[in-house]
Structures
1.
Amino acid sequence: MSILVNKDTKVIVQGFTGKEGTFHAEQCLAYGTNIVGGVTPNKGGQKHLEKPVFNTVKEAVNATGATVSMIFVPPVFVADAVMEAADAGIELAVIITEGAPVRDMQAAKAYAVKHGMMTIGPNCPGIITAEECKIGIMPGAIFKKGNVGLISKSGTLTYEGANQVCKEGFGITTAVGIGGDPIIGLSYKQLLPMFEADPETEAIVMIGEIGGDLEIQAAAFIKENITKPVVAFIAGQTAPKGKRMGHAGAIVSGGAGTAAEKMAALEAAGVKVVVSPAEIGKAVKEVLTK
Amino acid sequence: MNIHEYQAKQIFAKYGVPTPRGIVANTPSQAVAAAHELGGNIWVVKAQIHAGGRGLGGGVKLAKSIEEVEQLASEILHMTLITHQTGPEGKEVHKVYIEEGADIKDELYLGVVLDRAKEMPVIMASTEGGMEIEKVAEETPEKIVKVAVDPAVGFQGFHGRELVFGLGITDKTEQAKFIKFAQALYKVYMENDAEMIEINPLIKTGSGDFLALDGKMGFDDSALGRHPDIEDMRDISEEDHDEREASQYGLSYISLDGEIGCMVNGAGLAMGTMDTINYMGGTPANFLDVGGKANAETVAKGFEIILKNPKVKAIFVNIFGGIVRCDRIANGILEATKMVDVRVPVIVRLDGTNAVEAAEILKNAGISNVISATDLGDGARKAVEAAAAQ
């Protein structure tokens, strides 16, 4: 078991034939992802990576029965691509592209929600169900199959967390990089109950960042609804106020969204909070061998 | 990206958001000419820097004669203004804005920002103009009126009514003027891909008009491509030199106060590395995300920028290669040691894609002050120890 995606999930790639799309689609195929085709306007009818190319998402869905789309189009085309996927009946769009304007994402997310399509990202590493299905840009080799679910705003901290969990002798069911932009798709609050319901997942790692209040909402949700042990790390305890740390969209202004606030809320909800990401693996071991 | 008050007011004017008349000046004589052109007998001389709290810091002064305009302009131009938002080092003033005096009856606050939870822009208004809005939010949250606007339908009549009744504006003419003001400001926000707009204070004059006495705007960097007119407003002198230089190489750099330089891939891991150094008893000297396209040149540039800081006593390179390949980083480190005098110990932790090749490259190079680490915790510990031994 796993959440959202598995070896049978039919995936298409929007921006299939571009440089990024090609490179990562190839890696995903090598991992075993069931990529059934891709979309690049005006290249319909061609073959790419031995898979059919379509002009529109509608054509691709009709021909392949795909339910998930991995989006690699350039930033200013992201909103269009997301809305096209939603309109074509895609169930989950995984948006990898970095640098999509916030206003565009606001409109695209609202449209997706209205059409019942889930989204992950943008500006994220994607989602991976270990040893079954990788939809994104993470190094697949570090995700060994196991019993820990992982949700992270940060790409490289996803790898760091998963690697430590595996080095402690455990493994991953599904890992989701949700991205740290101001507007994102699925978040802790939607993903936590999926892991709670997944019989294979026995513990959950959640990695957050300064800025926004998603982790605070997650803490309240965990307190009421999650029975499985949760280990959390919040990046940015040492970040100066009012500075944007890279492209993470992590910004602290005023008092809201500090690491200290989030850590306190999570601890109060019974979560095992670690002060350094170097402690994630050990903490998972501790909660699983209790 | 942020812009100056005078630039924000130029944008406001285009959308019919009322402001006092004003002219920007680079020299005291330009300030005098500006005051003559504006006419009247009272002017405000305002320092133009990208930080709030200018008034308290002595960067906003009232002049009651042309001579006073000249004197104040020469005092304020090239002064180093220190406010609660500039940090202790302050900011040098390069421009002043000469504005006609206004008849202030009431001071209000009006702003537009994204409400991340609602995923919509929210208009915030308050009767507590002139105060820091964060402080108002903390101490008297009931004095802030918040109205979220769904961009799919735009600013509606009820948004306006909620604002004016929330602020206690009872005069019908004033209500209409304020609603028009707020609606225009919402349009400024949407059409320019603003990240935030803040007018503090927004004043009501003796004759019942509303004017933006101040104006602060920040923009979504990802959307600047479609706003060349706003990109043209960029003031390089307001940006940190090192941060700007780094960004030209695809590096995202922010300098901090500590002793251990950091070079990391990914913003989250970069912050996590800083946190770990802190946890181990050390202090990070900077945030540096090498991004997804790191190569030998960018890594060398990163070392150069980190080492410009004389406080740096050790450097911790922490890479978890996903898209970034570790062998490229290893080559970058070798390259850097040739190009830059790496005077401090460098602790290197390379994991993920091509980590084995990278370890081989570093081992064969045999550079004396490069220390390898097995994982994040080990690397941070070694960096803290190395810095302490210096």
2.
Amino acid sequence: MTAALEITRLSKHFGGLSAVDDVTIVVPGGDRRLLLGPNGAGKTTLFNLVTGELKPETGTVRLLGQDITRLAPYRCAHYGLARTYQILTLFPHSTLGESVILSMLGLRPERWNPFVRIRNRAAYWDRAVEALARVGLEAKARTRFGETSYGEKRRLEVALALAQGPKVLLLDEPLAGLSSEERFGMRALIESIPREITLMMIEHDMDTALEIAETVTVMHHGRVVAEGDRASIVRDPRVKEVYFAS
Amino acid sequence: MSLAFWLVQTLNALALGGLLFLLSAGFSLIFGLMRIANLTHGAYFMLGAYVGLSVLDASWGFFAAVLLGSLAIAVFGAAVQRFILARLGDRVLAQVLVTLGLSFIIADLCLMLWTGDPMQLAAPAVLSRPIEFYGYVFPGYRVFVVAVSLLVAVLLWFLIERTRLGAMVRAAVDDMEMARGMGIRAPRLFTIVFCLGCALAGMGGVLGGPILSVYPGLDAEMLPLALVVVILGGIGSLLGAFIGSFVTGFIYTFGQALLPDFAYVILFLPMIIILMFRPEGLFGEKSG
Amino acid sequence: MNQGGPLLVLALCLLAPLAAGEIFYINVASQILIAAVFAASLNILVGYGGLVSLGHASFFGLAAYAIALLTTRWGYGHFAAILIALLFATLVACVFGAVSLRATGIPFLMITLALGQTLWGVAYRWADLTGGDNGITDVRRPVVLGIDLIEPTAFYLAMVGVLLATMAFLNVFVNSGLGMSLEGARDQPRRMRMLGHGVRMVQWLAFVISGFLAAVSGICFVYYHSYIHPHSLGLATSAEALLMVIAGGVATLAGPLVGAAIVVVFKMVVSAYVTRWVMLLGIVFVLIVIFIPEGVVPGLLRVARRFRVGAK
């Protein structure tokens, strides 16, 4: 069975520092993988290496068997990789619906066409509203990005990624900065993502994240120090050491 | 092409380089610190030259001309920065519009006050004496210009690297948020640096008067040269402005002397190639 | 947004010079429309693409020179000359775009400036081809459908046609897949890449389209003046277009028209009454930045909205 995401011996150094050191992670299809580790463990760097925003020195990344190690982010997107970001970087002048349309356009040939109107076309707009409905934002389709709340912006992030119909979705701290109520909603949202989409998540809020996750990989100083299902990781003394020692 | 020819051209190139340094050091500092592309800078250079001209006409002497030329532009620049540019934050397009608008105003003002005739700014006799060196004769004024620009370069280096003001400038250029957190008052710092940059441009204008003459359109000719220097040398880098100025001075001078038909191409083509492979310039810092 | 109001205003503005009747005003209006198309082409890059160029006169001037040379020296008919001029200028835009877009921001500005100045320098010095400082004169206007465009009203109507076609295209462009992708690339290039967009390719396509439209305006320009000079390739021309775009309001359809109107009216009309019109124009720019920094059109819309809210 081809793994959804196969990271093999990936390494990246910055100056003298090993940000990611000989990391191997295999994520089977449909998995809900949680990447844990203290600040500076290399988790976001690992995400950047997978998406192609950073180039690794050694190692390979395979997406459903396809080697995407040296591919630029936009090519990886076309192979079915999607990602959300820790710091919200979305489109300030657009409405939520328009942002989703931009996401949908990323994989469609219409993005090169200057001669056909798209912005208010029913076909695109309806699809965008559908995508927003999946995260509960359909009522805000015509609202400008600047007028939405932080929690809504976080949900928009997920909507943009899901609108592409990805095969593997990387979530970078999806719960960051949310109130307990919003966290509850986001958890439900993540749990409602169908099994066809494999999830890998970085999260600091361990309590909620551990309830969503099925498998956990723990990183420290750029290396993988523990891996296993949720129950065993929670009991693992090494994990406690990683968190309390640093 | 005799050796005398080459030596004279070299001196011309050095003198032009020195003037370009005075012009572009200020531009580079202003951009490095405040992220403002001060497109009025060519006009400041020209206005300084015209002010210097009037001071000379009033028989107050060359030194007074340089001093008052620099001062006038510094004051003007301070007002512009304080009352107009400071309110714009980092809105690039508004900056472009206002700095170009100001250059229109200054250019027309000069036309109005000093008419459109090209004028020669007379170098003082004491500085114009020919200097003899191993049998070759050099125009003294150009040597003077080179000497002054080197002195200014050293003083600027000292200011940036060894004084408290310079430390504040360097801190703010590196990381504005951090600098503010440490109590550095950005608004005042900005005005001071902007003043300094404008003063240098004004000084360059007066000192350049005897060499370049003073005429309408001088601003439009100097601005692209300043931009070439800053891009070659890297934005915000004093060393870069220094080296870039003299490289540009040499290319322009020898280009004009040897291949006048291609002078402009020779100047801009290397710049294009450098920018294609190193967008931050030769000495600039790579931006995110 | 309701399209009726603005279209009505546009129609009135376009008809006004004809109603006024005087040849002088019809000619000024023609110049405004030519400048408006030039500014609108730059607006694609600056407003919608976030790419500030100081070398856009390159394509404007190249197309103009091509027409001048093809029709006065090399014996081509107008139809062929226009096609060749457009093709040539667009090809140059393809090359310049590829070179310039290796950078963004200020380095991009500098490369476009350098490319433009290089062309200007070549035009100035290669006097055998371009006439150098004398330029090329005696460019005759074409005869279209039996109507000689030497007649001011006929030429003006042709310019109206060109403007309306340009506006119609831009109206579709900003709402098209490429147009939306361009704006997304302006705002969040990193995010756009992660969403599958080829940001550089989008910007290059926009650059080429923008260069094509600039060429269109350059062709109209040389036909209007019957004369071309290296100045039309230079920094001053590029800077003027940039000022029109910014003053009018970037990333709006009407902005370039308003900006062009302001600059041309000052150059052609105000200059007859006020000697210091250049200074006055500079003051207008400074005042725009102080009071309506987002540009005239967005500024007026803002004021109009407040009136409407106040009236309620």
